[in-house]
Each structure stands twice: as structure tokens, then as C-alpha cells.
Amino acid sequence: MTLSGSKRLSGRALHPGRGAGTVLILDQPISFWGGVDHHGVIIDVHHPQCGVSVADRVLVMTSGRGSSSATAVLAELIRAKKAPVAMIFTECDTILVIGALVSAELYQIRMPMIELTAQDYEKIPTAGIVQVEASTETMVGFITW
């Protein structure tokens, strides 16, 4: 993947890691429990992006939606390599962060998660490839494109 690297945003690191992929900005939050299938495809028929895959994408949404079971679903998607490569929010979703923590502990697979301000969230490119790097040691995450 080629990045121009000319633009960068920084935010609060929620989970450490590094990933790069095509941006997928969701129009509405999604629940991983019942909203995404085991292939990483959005199956919630009420979601505007039903049928779109989150796998191997940098998933951008304001927050997650619902169910503590989403922790297990996300951890399994990460293990199966059907999860997003990174996630960006404006509101920390503790349930999804726990899913990333579980996958890091059990499978040694890290998925970076970053929380941005609403102003910076609006600056994320709507298409193209971005790189996400997050460090919980410094509590800073970067998005570069």
C-alpha cells in the first residue's frame, strides 16, 4: 500500500498497534453482535451500508453500538483476519477496545484504535488508504495519508 504521508491527524490511543488500509466511514454506528457476520460483512438490514465488508479496512465510526457480546465477535473476527485493520472513533467504545485487548492477549494480533476530536474526525479522507499507528505508552495515535 502506498501512502503519500503528506497529512496527519493525532488523537488518543485506545489500543496499540499499526495497520493500513482503505478507509470505510460508516454513516451510522454498528453493533458487531448481530450486525456483522463471520466474514466481516455488515448484515444489519437497517444499516445504510448493509452488504459492505469491514474486513481489511480502516473502520471509521463515531462509536460502536450495543451488546457486550461484541467483544467476543470482534476478537474472533480479528483472529480469523476478517476484522478491520484499525478503528477510529470520536467516542471510546470500551466493549470494542476489550475485543482488541482479548485478541492481542490470546492471538498476539493487534488492531490499533484511536479516538479523535469531532473536528479532526471530520478531516479524515473519505476514500483512499490511510495508516494508523497507536501507542498506549504515549497514549497518542496517528492517522497518516
List keywords for this structure.
alpha/beta; 22% helix; seven-stranded mixed beta barrel; 7 strands; 145 residues; Glucose Oxidase, domain 1
Instruction: Supply Rg.
Output: 14 Å
Which band does the percent of strand residues land in? Answer: 25-35%
How many domains? The number is 1
What is the ordering of alpha helices and beta strands? EEHEHEHEHEE
Can you offer a commentary on this structure?
By secondary structure, this protein is an alpha/beta fold. It has a single domain (8-144), classed as Glucose Oxidase, domain 1, CATH 3.50.30. 22% of the residues lie in helices and 28% in strands. It has helices at residues 32-35, 70-79, 94-107, 118-121; strands at 8-15, 17-25, 57-60, 86-89, 113-115, 129-135, 140-144. A seven-stranded mixed barrel has the order 1-5-4-3-2-6-7. Helix 2 (70-79) links the parallel strand 3 (57-60) and strand 4. The model has no long low-confidence stretch (mean pLDDT 95).
Write the layout of secondary structure elements.
Blueprint: E1 8-15, E2 17-25, H1 32-35, E3 57-60, H2 70-79, E4 86-89, H3 94-107, E5 113-115, H4 118-121, E6 129-135, E7 140-144
Helix pairs in contact: 2-3
